[in-house]
Amino acid sequence: MAFELMAPLMFAMLAALLLLGYPVAFALAANGMLFAFVGFELGMLQPELLQALPQRLFGIMSNQLLIAIPFFTFMGIVLERTGMAEDLLDSIGQIFGPVRGGVAYAVIFVGALLAATTGVIAASVIAMGLISLPVMLRYGYDPRVASGVICASGTLAQIIPPSIVLIVLADVLGASVGDMYAGAVVPGLVLVGLMMGYILVVSVVKPGAVPALPPEARTLRGAALYRRALASMVPPLVLVFLVLGTIFLGIATPSEGGAMGAVGAIALALAKRRLTWALLRQAMDQTAKLTTFVMFILIGSTVFALVFRAVEGDLWVERLFGLVPGGAVGFLLVVNLIVFVLGFFIDFFEIAFILLPLLAPVVAKLGIDPVWFAVMIGLNMQTSFLTPPFGFALFYLRSVAPRTIATADIYRGIVPFVALQLLAVGLLFAFPGMTDLLDGERAKKIDVDKVEIRLEAPAEDRGADDKAEDDLQKALGGSAPPSGAPKEAPAPGKGAAPKSEEERAAEEIERQLGGRK
Amino acid sequence: MSTLLKLAALIDDLNGRVGRAVYWLVLVAVLVSASNAVARYGFNASSNAWLELQWYLFSAVFLLGAGYGLREGAHVRIDLIAGRLSRRTQAWIDVFGGVFMLLPAAAIILWFGWDAFAESWRQGEMSTDAGGLVRWPVKLLIPAGFALLILQGLAETIKRVAFLRGQYDWHPAGAAGDGAAPADTDS
């Protein structure tokens, strides 16, 4: 068997094994090992290859970024279990209620608040489905608008920090979590704005679909209502702003921030007199399970990536994307299309762990800012929760929605919101500066980097010369940095993809040779 | 079969106990990490041993919890096709996956992991950072965790085979159950 066939075969086999429906983590690992042994048998790979495994695993274990995952998860679950969603929906729903479309605005607002604090999509959608959906239906909301706005608001946790997805993407793409979080804030708020704008348009064009609540629907009013809203809103928000602020400013590492946030969440639960041993145990149990599942996919994808690189799968992927015309722009369009289509069938964790490690070297090579790229992909992946047949937000809502709402209504109601999310992706594409608004220092640094890197990957160079270029690069041993590779410490330095001196030198030589050809 | 089912029940019980013990380490890790942050910013004190303890604990959570996670169905699957198959076919897929994917892959990692641990133990390997921790305990977590995972893999396979023979009641996790955030769904 030809060596060049190994990578495509490995990829095809992975797709087949994943479709079987066996846990992704083990399918990834087993597929990697299978091809390692095929490679040994055919004399293509050295048996020492798999001996690198314990070291790789060890790198994952000692990765300071990933520790933030259980911390933020734990913080979110504790906050969620203190009844935050219920308190917020009750009070804010009544504040916005008298306005046309008011409950819908309240759902979006609360969705954004929950995203920044609890970050648990299932819990957000279910709470809003149980509390706000009946209210909206009772007072004559169009069931499609009502269910659409709930599902879409619930998924804001994907992109609004502190999102777990962004930690994973930071690790895969070799960027700092702080930069990711700072970069995601503005695009996340833009999306919130777009959703509110849509409700405003509906309330003007089709006022009957989003009526105002009649006075009798309000149990509280005046100062008492505002006091209740503030009491449920302010403490967790202050906590999250402290946590995120210290991370943005580079004072705390993500793991320190996450740990402080988790302690703060326990303190808030204690202050609300809702902290029980049962709550604590549930939170630890769920955190441990989520951590196990995320880390095991990461272990599986590491085994896969180790062997995939050994059979030069990274070069194969690079060559495939080299066929796409239009350089970085063409690459981004194709990648966004792939992510969107995959989102119909699989979730962000599979996309983040399987697809993105394959793309990371290409991203680095094209000189695309990893933070901008990650936030764009994160926004795009959010649609994976909303697109049938496997949109989990839809499942969660279906499980709590009254039978009077047809499943078809839920599916149709989500369409405008998916379109809004794609619009947000498009806006971010058109205005890359959005990710730098919170972090001017980074913006300057990136500009310098871009100027430097763009030289080496002029758009028109991709294409015919590509194979030669790749072969040359192979010969020079200067392939892009292994993205899945563990990083011992969080990258404190802000900026684009890490490149070693040798890699830069190799690319320099390659550029000169490529230019002459 | 009944002996095997008893074995499976024993393993279930073992990993249940380990899992419920290990999840306390989440809280311990939170407290250790928060104390480290306070010590660093409040008192300008920092200890490599305490910093390393964070990721020792973190590793213990997901490695020693591996068997428990498998038992609880925490791992995400792509049920695009599998979700529409009959329970029997899904059980067959799990048997196939257990025998040809999970068990061999975990056994290979256990094998190499044990070597790495033995080496570390022989050399008395220490952290390369000043005042860091001794390395063998954290290296032992790899073979220990994968051994627990292999045991649970055996137990799950036994339970699926028993189900296929009509001797055990088993229900696949629901479609909405094992998706984006499996931990969320029992809320």
Description:
- The complex is a heterodimer of chains A (517) and B (187).
- Chain A is mostly helical.
- Helix content of chain A is 71%, strand content 0%.
- In chain A, helix 7 runs antiparallel to helix 8 and helix 14 runs antiparallel to helix 21.
- The relative contact order of chain A is 0.14.
- Chain B has 187 residues and is mainly α.
- Chain B has six helices and no strands.
- In chain B, helix 5 runs antiparallel to helix 6.
- Chain B starts with a helix and ends in a 23-residue tail after the last helix.
- The C terminus of chain B is likely disordered.
- Classes of the chains: A mainly alpha (517), B mainly alpha (187).
List the helices and strands and how they pair.
The complex is a heterodimer of chains A (517) and B (187).
Chain A: H1 3-19, H2 24-41, H3 53-61, H4 68-81, H5 84-96, H6 102-117, H7 121-138, H8 143-154, H9 164-173, H10 177-205, H11 222-248, H12 254-271, H13 277-310, H14 313-322, H15 327-343, H16 348-366, H17 370-382, H18 392-400, H19 407-430, H20 440-454, H21 466-476, H22 501-516
Helix pairs in contact in A: 1-2, 2-13, 3-13, 4-12, 4-13, 5-6, 5-7, 5-11, 6-7, 6-8, 6-10, 7-8, 7-18, 8-18, 8-19, 9-16, 9-17, 10-17, 10-19, 11-12, 13-16, 14-16, 14-21, 15-16, 15-17, 16-17, 17-19, 21-22
Chain B: H1 2-22, H2 24-42, H3 48-64, H4 66-71, H5 87-123, H6 136-164
Helix pairs in contact in B: 1-6, 2-3, 3-6, 5-6
